[in-house]
Amino acid sequence: MPTSAEQATGIHVSVTMHKTVKSVMWHRRGDYLATLTSEEGGSSVLIHQVSKHRSQRPFRKLKGAVQSIMFHPTKPWFLVATQRYVRIYNLMQQALIKTLQPGVKWISSIDVHPQGDNVIVGSYDKKLSWFDLDLSVKPYRSIRYHRQAIRQVQYSRKFPLFATTSDDGTIQVYHGMVYQDLNQNPLIVPLKILRGHEIRNSLGVLDCLFHPIQPWLISSGADGTIRLWT
Questions:
Q1: Is the pTM of this model over 0.85?
Q2: Strand order in the sheet with 32-37
Q3: What is the pLDDT of residues 121-164, one digit of tens each?
């Protein structure tokens, strides 16, 4: 619970973490959020319920250092990316559903398509992997267009677009169409390479995010700038 002083400034929930927080992910319904810290093992991932001011550790043990976490957009699933694998858990059943095998040396980032059946995985060894969860635990397609490590991957929640950011200083935007017909494979077409961020200390574009309504992309770089692309 926040202190009286914190409540006076508008803080309604306060969670004390024992290690540095690496990322925070909200559940689509807004009552849950997940945190990833720099701890090793299962204690690095916590799920917090805002309405009940309660935190829980969903995993007693996790193999490997966790790189990224994410709630599934349509199912009670939770994705955990370690260095080489992406494991998908059913939180209701407390069971492992499947393990995605991108075949990379070090995963950096993951994202789930808004419809829920496709996943993209970025890696520090410059590779992007697209998974169709209905097909296989191996990539439907692997792409290696960046010259340096991929830092972030991101789907648009409104348009058939996705993007990758890299230490080569570029953002690559793709057309990624997912069809309602399950017999038709996703269509992936490179669209544009965005340049503008400067490389600092071998670091380039660190993060990106699509606008929820407009066909805009926001990026942040090691050069200390945040840019809006339209």
A1: yes
A2: 21-26, 32-37, 45-49, 54-56
A3: 999 999 999 999 999 999 999 999 999 999 999 999 999 999 99
